[in-house]
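Memo to structure team: turn this sequence into C-alpha cells by end of day. - J.P.
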Amino acid sequence: MATVTNANGIIAQAAQAQVEASKPKKPSVIMQELLDNEHTKKILQNALHENANSYSASILDLFIGDKALQQCRPKLVLGECLKAAALQLPINKQLGFAYVVAYKGVPQFQIGYRGLIQLCMRTGQYKHINAGEVYEGEYKGFSKLTGELDISGERISDTVIGYFAYLETLNGFTHSAYWTKEEVTKHAQKYSKSFNYSSSAWQTDFNKMAVKTVLRNMLSHYGYMSVEMIKAFSDEESKKSTDEAQTEDDNIVDADATIVDMDEIAEADICTTK
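Reply from structure team:
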C-alpha cells in the first residue's frame, strides 16, 4: 500500500510540475533570464566594464516599475536599453539622461536633455552650451541672418512664451536658436506619435520636452557631431521612422558596433513568450 501511495504522490508531483511548466512566464522572469544570459552579460561588460552589473540591475528595475514596458516583448525592451548602455547613459527616469518608453506595445529608446549635454561634453569641442525656457518679457529679438538671440529683457510673469538653445565651440563658432511655444507645439504634433496621449512626456512635462527638441534640432544642424552623437540620434530615430509592422526586427547593435541577433540571447520559449 505504501508503494502505491508513494507512486501516486510522484505522479501528482510530476503532473503539477507539468502544469507549472506550461504556464506563461511572467515578463519580469523573462527579463531576468535575458539579463542572466552570458551573451547579454558580455555586451554590458564590453560597454560598461565594472558598471555592467549595476546597469543590468537598473534595466530590471526600470522594467518591473513600468507596466507599459511589461506589455512589450522583454527582448525588445532589452534591445532598446542596450542602445543606452552602448552610449553609457543611465536609464533611470529621475536622472533624465535616457529613457525607454512604450508606444502601442513597442519600446522606444529616447535620449534626454541631460543625455544630449553629456554627449556634447564628451566631444571636448564645446566651450558653452545652454538651453531653456524664455518667459514673457525676456524676448527682445532674434536675427535670422546672424543667428543672434537677445533675451535680455526683464521677466514680467511665469508664462513661458518660447525656448532657446545656444552653443559656442572652442574655435569660437557660436549659434543660437529660438522657437516660440506655438512652433514647438506644431513640430511635436507633426513628428511625435504619442503627443496627444495623456501619459506622453509632451503632456506631463511639455517644457522639458520642448527644451530638448530645440537643443537637439540646433545640434543636428550646427553642432559638432561626434560618432557617438550621430549614433545616439540614429538610435532614437530608428523606431520613430519604422512602421509598427516592422518592429519584429530583433537585431541590435552592441557596444562594438557589431550586429547581434537577440534570438541568440535567449532560449526559444523565452524569445517567443510575450
